[in-house]
């Protein structure tokens, strides 16, 4: 993980002074856990969880809110301020600050969407098949969330059919028994300065 963090720190800024790193993948694929560990390896990098940006009424139609509250301030070199959504009370809460740090992580389904990619330094995709990821998510959330999951899966299918992320990923991340395996992504834009093997096999386990 520390090798990957060192690689990301060396990237040129992509959103004002910020290196914005997206962690995308299917719901239940382990994005939040991976992003948390990567943030720690980066010395406490800020993490924006897209669950705080989305809402029941806008599971995926949150691009304008993300742009206004987060992307534009970071482009100006300013701290962002966004209102996190409370999934229990179904309302947006008090503002929360997202610092314009050298590296900022944004994790969640749709983090690598078309509108966001121009501002990303790297797009990472959690490599877990959709049905397996959704099964993990359902198991995690319990039977009381079964109705929500039924609607979510349909919405996620529609989103990725219209605006896929994986084909544009710079890196694919697979969770192992210990650590993570990081592979070059389908986009193929990771250069030799990334300390990653460009062959078919795994580059490293972090």
Give me some keywords for this one:
seven-stranded mixed sheet, two-stranded antiparallel ribbon, 206 residues, Rossmann fold, alpha/beta
Q: What would you say about this model in short?
A:
The protein has five helices and eleven strands.
Word description of this protein:
With 206 residues, the protein is of the alpha/beta class. The chain has one domain (2-205): P-loop containing nucleotide triphosphate hydrolases (Rossmann fold). Helix content is 30%, strand content 20%. The chain contains five helices and eleven strands. The chain has helices at 2-9, 31-41, 63-75, 130-141, 146-162; strands spanning 19-24, 47-49, 80-82, 85-86, 91-92, 96-98, 103-107, 122-126, 171-175, 180-184, 204-205. The strands form three sheets. Strands 2-7-1-8-9-10-11 form a seven-stranded mixed β-sheet, with helices on one face. Strands 3-6 form a two-stranded antiparallel ribbon. A hairpin with a 4-residue loop joins strand 9 and strand 10. The relative contact order is 0.19. The model is unreliable at 190-206 (pLDDT under 50).
